[in-house]
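Title: Prediction job returns without error message
Component: structure pipeline
Severity: low
Priority: P3
Assignee: unassigned

Description:
Job completed but the reporter wants confirmation the result is attached to the right record. Sequence as submitted:
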Amino acid sequence: MDGAPGGPQRDGARGNEERDAVVRWTQRIGCGGRHALEEGDMFNFWHKRRCTMGNQRGFTLIELMIVVAIIGILAAIAVPLYANMQARARIAKAQADIRGMASAVSAWTAHMGTLPSALGLLTAIATSPQNITAGPFMAAIPTPPSTVWGAAYSYAINAALGTFTISAAGDGATVSAP
């Protein structure tokens, strides 16, 4: 009664059942069935070892190097764009500051009848020749956007023509307003 339940089993039959179960399992996970279980050469050994590692996952060194290279390329593109955007923001701030100061100088001139001799006068209360008090025309004189732009905005008066110029230079650009 070989092979009957509870009776002695032949080693060969039991080995074949186990082997068939392993073959079905390797076919289910995509490791090639009987090919992975045949013995004899190094390829089969490594193939069997790879299939028995199951769900162990990870990144190879090549994959990690590719990711690092892609990040490096993106950084090489993004850093100059970011620096350019910062420079444009500083220029826009300088332009807005100069427009505000030019408006305050125009208001001072309309009130006093002359151009102010310095930008600092725009923050003080002024009394016109007709004894009318006004001001301050600005809460504070703005400072340039960064140390690249220098210490302060420059203010020049052309008394003969009755004009003025406010300017700032930095980041390879000069910003001015008449």
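Comment from assignee: result matches the submitted record. Residues 11-52 form one domain.
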